[in-house]
Amino acid sequence: MNVDYFVDIWHYLLHEAWILQVFLLVFIALLLDWFQKRTIARLMIQAGKTRIAWDSALLEAAGKPLTVLIWLLGITLAADIAKGETGAVIFKVVAPVREVGVIALIAWFLVRFVKRAELHFIRLRQEAGAPVDRTTTDAIAKLIRISILITAFLVILQALGYSISGVLAFGGVSGIIAGLAAKDLLANFFGGLMIYLDRPFEVGDWIRSPDKEIEGTVEEIGWRLTRIRTFDKRPLYVPNSVFASIAVENPQRMTNRRIYETIGIRYDDAGSMAAITRDVKQMLREHPEIDTNQTMIVNFVKFAPSSLDFFIYTFTKTTQWVRFHEIKEDVMLKVIAIIEQHGAECAFPTSTIHIAPEADVKPDAEQRP
Known about the structure:
By secondary structure, the protein is of the alpha+beta class. The chain is 56% helix and 13% strand. The strands form two sheets. It has a four-stranded antiparallel β-sheet with strand order 1-2-3-4. α3 runs antiparallel to α4.
């Protein structure tokens, strides 16, 4: 090659040095992004060894926003250099884009941090065996995220040259119009707020309503909908405003489960009724799964058409559905055993038919042939 060719390239680079500067800025951004990814990955390993929720949440939240921030600053600084050399009108938007981008990235980082801090906090509490109120934690996290987004929106408007006071004044008028147009949405929002404040149920609770066909386990309480998983594993989405007008039963918060059964014995075994009820009550008092501090009744109550009935009214210590039925089965089998020990039997519906003896009819003499 001719030496003059390299000389021409050198003079071109000296004259157009801004191109080299742009290249260097982009290359530096690439190196910084590579370095921060490796650094965060190493710090994440160390943070995973601690019992603190905030360090892992901070590192996880910073990853993607930091990458975007590095490239945003690198590209906009390169654009500033190109603007100084070319004077193109399009580069006038670089400064506003950079300001808005930085504010948006800070808000994105804070929202990610709050979400991950919430998840790590719940996980560490569960691993430690400590009680955790998922509903309250979720409500506080959502309120913080909404506050961050609203604040970021107002700061962005201020950065773009809009008056926040004017925006707030306009928002007051437009808020009335929006409230009238979206009253159902607002009703659901305030319904969700009332759920968080009154706490009739929490995430994980089994609830049901006698007014509506609602029954299942609460999976999520949102600002508009509550997701309930029914017992056939189907998701049920209920608007929060519904809970303001219906009764909700929360079996999850019961202190005991009740055994309420009526047993009948034969009328032929009437003489054993007092002994049977006495022994059944004694059996319940000695049963390890029966709560003797609660009401306990075993009494003869009714002359039924086919049986003499006594009833059992007592409470188990457990509230677990499966365990309750195991205990109830054990109690009922012991009742049967007590009845048989006294030579009695459980009654079942029977009917007795009395047939009158055939009348001795003699033919009338006048009717003889």
